[in-house]
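idk why but the lab printer keeps eating my pages so im just putting this in chat instead. protein + S-adenosylmethionine:
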Amino acid sequence: MSTYTHGHHATVLSSHQWRTVENSAAHLLPHLVPGASVLDVGCGPGTITAGIAERVAPGRVVGVDAAEAVLDEAARAARERGATNVEFAVADVHALEYADDSFDVVHAHQVLQHVPDPVGALREMRRVCRPGGVVAVREADFGGMIWYPNPPGMDDWLRVYYPVARGNGGEPDAGRRLVAWARAAGFADVAASSSSWCYATPEEREWWSESWGGRMVRSHVAETAVAGGHATREELAAIYAGWKEWAADDAGWFSVTHGEIICVA
Ligand SMILES: C[S@@+](CC[C@H](N)C(=O)[O-])C[C@H]1O[C@@H](n2cnc3c(N)ncnc32)[C@H](O)[C@@H]1O
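predcted complex ->
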């Protein structure tokens, strides 16, 4: 099983827990009909999974993740929303322990960019999806991240992030590759789209800079960057300071482009 680049530090979870079906899986909404069974692969803290469960109830929803610890958060998110049609389990997307044709919908959000074999992962997602069901994926594309202003320090974060993610077997420019990966996995019917997140209010800037700037000094990313010789602690501190300067600027704006695919199994 691969190493998840970010780990599940609070700086990382705060970004994942903001996510909803509406802001992170809008391309999937037409397929979330009552009664549909859904597998959410790499569900993390499960806020998207809980939203899926609400929409497809009484359909069965299963959230799986390679990291057991984060599944407690996921179960809590589901309980808080009163979702009773959802369960969680540990699983590796490369080897899912479900029979062929088990689900109507198999979904992954921000997972394939972290795994060493995204094409194999898509094949496995297809195997557990019933014929005629859909496999849906959305991935950020780090080359499609743009922001303003660009204070000294902050402009260095991608220089550090790319080798850290790739050193763990991931591909930060995943969004643009989804169609290619789906074709390589054998899907003939692939509908592609893109959508973005935008952070510009003072609250959004504070939260996003703490999540990403904070991640560069206090998470698994920071440890790996230093251990791999990609940055010193001082350089990481300068990146964090740059993020905070960006957040403090009233003109601050940040956009994250994503690739999305809906594949018919
Ligand atoms: C960026 S998080 C996304 C979480 C959630 N889908 C969301 O968008 O809020 C990526 C998740 O994928 C999980 N993951 C990484 N590699 C995995 C693998 N091989 N199989 C299953 N899950 C994996 C990580 O543990 C992490 O929780």
